């Protein structure tokens, strides 16, 4: 029996496994139920008692060695075949660091704006980004020949009936006024779209925050006070505010709001183009025609609206010079706004 074990061991050692076929041949010949190793185990029953221990140990060893050879060969074959045509990773390379995310600067600033206005009673409201002509233009008093109604300025999804990507968040004004519940005190942040050539100062997609207050006897003074309050809370107590007369189809009178330049504090620099002032928003008293369009009686109610560009506010707040940075998701840019407590 001892000799048989030894010669089988030699046979196993000499067996060359090169591929899957020879591996399978090896398995059948030595390890299967009818294989040579099992055969010796069958013969083991007839070994005399005094030899059982010694022979048993040798047999078990033979079994382990023959199985190990099978497993190792199998692994080696898998490795060589799976590597064909596939780049072997270089495990010595440093790992790619796990980048922590950060709240986008636009979201951080928006959160602050929402906090400021919710502190003085404003609710959140929104309209759809895909809007019809009525809510984006007509109800807001845009004349039929207004340039924003042209394909060159706005992204139309359909012409006749006109459906487009909203060009401003003022559509939310119309929708909330149409709902008929008074008083209205809302801000509506959201994405807006314009057919602009993308540059450091313009983008085809950006964000606005629109505000609307409608009640009995709302005055222009209240509008001014609200803006003063917002600017001081947003940019600091020392920031100066000025109103310039302007025009929007949906407000009358209308104004644009400038604040003293945050960089040079009014002395003059290239951010404010040496004027000492930067524009931050448009505003005005809601046009009586717009109120009527939304079934609100202008003899009973009046109100004001304002709208600002979120990117613009954020650029001023952080002194960011290129609008495109907001949309590139470059972590080197975004990481600078980690742990900001604004
Ligand atoms: N909707 C205007 C714009 O897109 C901003 C605005 C809103 C102006 C509300 C006045 C009142 O420029």
Estimate the strand proportion.
Answer: 15-25%
Task: Enumerate how many helices there are, as a single number.
Answer: 12
Based on secondary structure, the structural category is: alpha+beta
Rg, nearest Å: 39 Å
Strand order of the largest sheet: 1-5-6-10-9-8-7
Q: How much helix is in the residues?
A: 25-40%
Q: Overall mean pLDDT score?
A: 91
Tell the overall outline. Answer: elongated
Fourth CATH level, the homologous superfamily of the largest domain: Bira Bifunctional Protein, Domain 2
The strand count comes to: 10
CATH fold type of the largest domain = BirA Bifunctional Protein, domain 2
What is the CATH class name of the largest domain?
A: Alpha Beta
Compounds present?
A: phenylalanine
Distance between the termini: 86 Å
Poorly predicted regions are: none
CATH architecture of the largest domain, by name, is 2-Layer Sandwich
Number of domains: 2
> Can you write the helix and strand succession as a string?
HHHHHEEHEEHEEHEEEHEHHH
Q: Could you give a short account of the major beta sheet?
A: 7 strands, mixed
